[in-house]
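Quick start: read one record
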Amino acid sequence: MQTQTHWSHRPTTMAPNAMITTPHYLASQAGMKVLQEGGNAVEAAIAAASTIGVVYPHMNGIGGDNFWLIYNANNKELMGLNSSGRSGENAAIDFYQKQGLKKIPARGPLAANTVPGAVAGWEKAYQYSIAKMKGGISWEDLLGSAIHYAKEGFPVTPSQEYWTNINLDETDSQFRHLQRFSEFKKIFTKTSGFSYRFGEIIKQKDLALTLEGISKEGSSLFYKGEVAKAIVEDLKQYGGVLTYDDFVSHRSDWVQPLSVDYRGYGVYNLPPNTQGFASLSILNILNQFDLPSMEEGSADYYHLLIEATKLAFKDRDQYLTDPDFSHIPIDELLSVKRGIEFADKIDFTKSINLQKQLDPKGDTVWLGVVDRFGNAVSLIQSIYHEYGSGFIPKGTGIVLQNRGSFFSLDETHVNCLQPRKRTYHTLNPAMIFKGNQPFLVYGTMGGEGQPQTQAALVTRILDYHFPIQAAIEAPRWLYGRTWGSETNSVKMEGRIPHEIIKSLQLRGHQVEVAEDFTDLMGHAGVIKIDPDSRVKFGGADPRGDGAALGF
């Protein structure tokens, strides 16, 4: 029985065969249908990812990127897939500087300077499923749910209504005010000019046609066919930089996952250009402390995790970019020696002052799947800011991401813009192994918050033995800036006791109190696999609109 400390609003979902968790219930249902029909984890993930790209359009879509961790139970192999897009061949610093810009705009066609990789990621994972995992469900069937909801419509969630309204702010023409883009206004606002209200049905007819084409022709339509041509033509009309050859040249890459030891467990994440090594670095630092002897939820607990985050981010911000353009000493950064070195810098009486301003922005979806065969998928998909660039090429229904706005126009910066380069990416799906088997499949949305929330989940589950749903619901924090702020602060949910907040302030933390359950903290999910019974324990975040489903 759960103690009061480990209480949760909803129970952990349990099932003997298979489990899926996503931040939207319709996407969870789409994936569950595939699992019940005998499909594997990759096939279920494609059905869920394509569906959530339709029904959660402010968070992700086919105009964005995705990253995968895939465990193949047949050969006991863990694979990483990097399906982020590269900048265009004409995307160069002087292109923006000649237009009088000191940084890449966050919205509009100039923000859409990287090729979307999501569709290519789905197809590459699908091909692996067929070749190596006995996959047997047709590509067309996997996209069926997404096509249905795009064509016939789906009820708008409170999250979509909220973020759409925020982005209709006409006083902020540089960042919000997305109705200045005609296709965005046509699709995501009513004739009155206001957002659809939650519970109202919204349809995306152009996106349905695009998805139908992809279901019949595969990703070639998106990267070599009429869709690619339509995207490039409309971007060119408005001054964008992507070319047809940029789309033809896109490739998604299999990569070797990174790992560190944490309390005898193997923790896995993706290598650069993702910030996966920052998530692992935090755990590498925490591994030098006896957390179970420290009360969970105490001021010392929060202080330690915040300080470990700052130190891991210091390395990340010094090195993270496309490894094809810059050497990143990963072995050194994730060494036990580095963990000890950083642990020694943590003073429990005062906080470290990190000068770099961190923006915790980033709207993303993470989903996890474990099938009856023992395969597992940890998948993350994003268009970066809510509604990405806001730019939708005419007739396609595709919201293009603004991930490329993260590039720097300072040529001395490690993540400076260069043609055909992948930008520093916040996306990083995770898995933990116990022995040689997956034990936890987990992740979250939230930009800068992803490594922080991953650390919260891992410590609460492994060090404090929280039930899965309770670990997800427990009070969270976020270190970084908020809108209009010039300094870094720690946002803490209002359920954290005042005396804890006061203690942190006395140590030098600038604390802001947020709502009790705020999606500022991201939408997290976890699946735990019992190594003996093989029962799956799943949870979904009440801060989002998701569900963990099993059978």
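The longest strand covers residues 376-384.
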